[in-house]
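Input chain follows. Return structure tokens only.
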Amino acid sequence: IFKFLGAISVDLGEDRIKPYLPTILTPLYRELNSNYAEQDPTLKNLSQEVIELLKKLVGLEAFSLAFSSVQKQANQKRAMRKKQRALQTVANPDIAARRKLKRHKNKAETRKRKIESLRPMYKAKRHRSHALKDLAVVE
């Protein structure tokens, strides 16, 4: 898709691509700023190349305005999600408690996996799944 965006940008030219610049920059910005563990470095390089191409095509000033608007929009979305999560914690404490229990359980499992990878002879005790007990409502 990044190659397609770059090709369309070159094909349309400077004047016809300017109205679509924020739309094109949104996925490129998201890929550049993502910090996933299994992120593909070729995608990051490709997005950087397309951004450089756009910068040369439309000029630094127009590109900077569009890029800053995309950046601002992404930051606003992130802040909105954080705010909603905080409000949900207050509004629905039972859901928040379940989420917290799940997070702690995952953290413990991760710790056990890490210990096992560092010391192969050591086997951490695993939580045995009891279907009915797990389904019961914790009070």
